[in-house]
Design brief:
Layout (H helix, E strand, L loop, with lengths): L9 H7 L2 H4 L1 H18 L3 H7 L1 E2 L2 E2 H16 L6 H5 L2 H29 L4 H12 L6 H7 L4 H33 L12 H29 L2 H37 L1 H28 L4 H12 L3 H12 L4 H30 L9 H9 L1
Antiparallel strand pairs: 1-2
């Protein structure tokens, strides 16, 4: 009988999964279809969402993302982060993440956009903007489902979020206007992205759930104890993450369902560079870091951090710069339409490859954790 690393039969482990976890693929597909149908057939849906905004941030989407991220961030062992930051390994991981997210990713997305959309400059601009916005939300879900390291994931997301505030605006100008002009290609309308909307997006989508998770963890650990927190509280809030994910998908797709169906031909065109991008940005670090001998949980964390994108920011900036009815905004909206199912499939691919490769799942700091907990 096949067993897990803990000696538990895998069929028994599957039966222990909640109804929501066991059929997650089905629920996500249904949420996507429901969202598109609502957006197309229910009149005034998009206008209703436009009235519920805080600056450039969509309140309905923000609520879903906050609910989705909160349970995952409650699991991060913030009390261990100072000791983890003292290790050489964590700085190596941060350096790898910075290279993948701020050098490799933008170059690959820009190259794919120009190679596949040479005759659609507005859609091309939207695709490039998706590539420049590094993920700060859904990466926690994919990393959690695939068995990645939550502590490293939190640190990598935080460092990329700080860089996103500083780099998204100049990167937009560089990759949309300047670099194409070097090759004599016509560029899109000049883009000028202010730093504050980017910072505002990061603070809301990451800062609020991160602060909530940190305060919750320290408050309950000090008052109720670790055993109660891990056996009672975390199992209680755990399902919120997937519920928040499904809600976010419905809202997001309902918001652009009409535009997606009305421009279905362009949707398929834009899907090509996005699909190739997500596959490349996942498997380049996945197999590259595996060849370097890194453990599975760190490799999968790097892969999803590199392969995910902050579609909320890309959509908000595209809408603010070009208008909500623009082709740039539509292209940015297609980003999650492709990203969600592709990265969901990649979570199962990662778990399958871990099993087939007999891959160890032991981060450098896990041994320290176990020693400390045994005392």
């Amino acid at each position: 009988m096949t067993t897990t690393e803990n000696g538990v039969p895998k069929k028994a482990l599957l039966r222990q999964l909640s109804f929501l976890d066991r059929f997650l693929v089905l629920w996500i597909l249904l949420a996507m279809v429901m969202g598109v149908l609502i957006g197309y057939y229910v009149p005034g849906v998009q206008e209703s969402f436009e009235t519920v905004q805080f600056a450039s941030v969509s309140v309905p989407i923000a609520i879903g993302l906050l609910v989705m991220m909160y349970p995952v961030l409650c699991k991060v062992q913030y009390e261990k982060l100072p000791s983890i930051l003292m290790t050489k390994q964590v700085w190596i991981q941060m350096a790898i993440s910075i290279v993948l997210n701020w050098i490799v990713g933008p170059i690959i997305m820009t190259g794919l956009a120009w190679a596949t959309l040479p005759d659609l400059p507005e859609f091309r601009t939207g695709v490039v903007m998706v590539g420049l916005a590094r993920c700060i939300a859904m990466v926690f879900i994919w990393n959690h489902l695939a068995g990645g390291d939550p502590d490293y994931c939190a640190m990598l997301v935080c460092i990329n979020s700080i860089l996103q505030i500083a780099l998204f605006s100049p990167y937009s100008v560089l990759f949309i206007n300047i670099i194409p002009s070097w090759f004599g290609a016509p560029t899109d309308t000049a883009i000028n992205v202010d730093i504050w909307p980017v910072a505002q997006s990061v603070l809301i989508y990451l800062g609020i759930p991160l602060a909530a998770g940190l305060v919750t963890r320290f408050a309950f650990l000090s008052t109720m104890g670790r055993a109660w927190y891990e056996k009672n509280f975390l199992p209680y809030v755990g399902p919120w993450a997937l519920i928040g994910l499904l809600y976010t998908i419905v809202v997001m797709f309902a918001n652009q369902g009409h535009e997606i169906i009305e421009h279905i031909g362009s949707v398929f065109r834009v899907a090509v560079p996005l699909f190739v991008y997500f596959i490349l940005m996942f498997f380049i670090p996945f197999f590259g870091l595996k060849a370097m001998g890194m453990p599975y949980d760190l490799v999968v964390t790097q892969s999803f951090t590199a392969g995910s994108n902050n579609f909320e920011l890309a959509i908000a900036v595209a809408v603010g710069t070009y208008g909500i009815r623009s082709e740039q905004a539509l292209a940015a909206t297609i980003g999650p339409l492709i990203e969600v199912p592709v990265l969901l499939v990649l979570t199962y691919v990662a778990l399958m490859l871990q099993k087939k490769m007999n891959w160890s799942n032991r981060s450098p700091h896990l041994t320290v954790r176990k020693d400390e907990e045994s005392h």
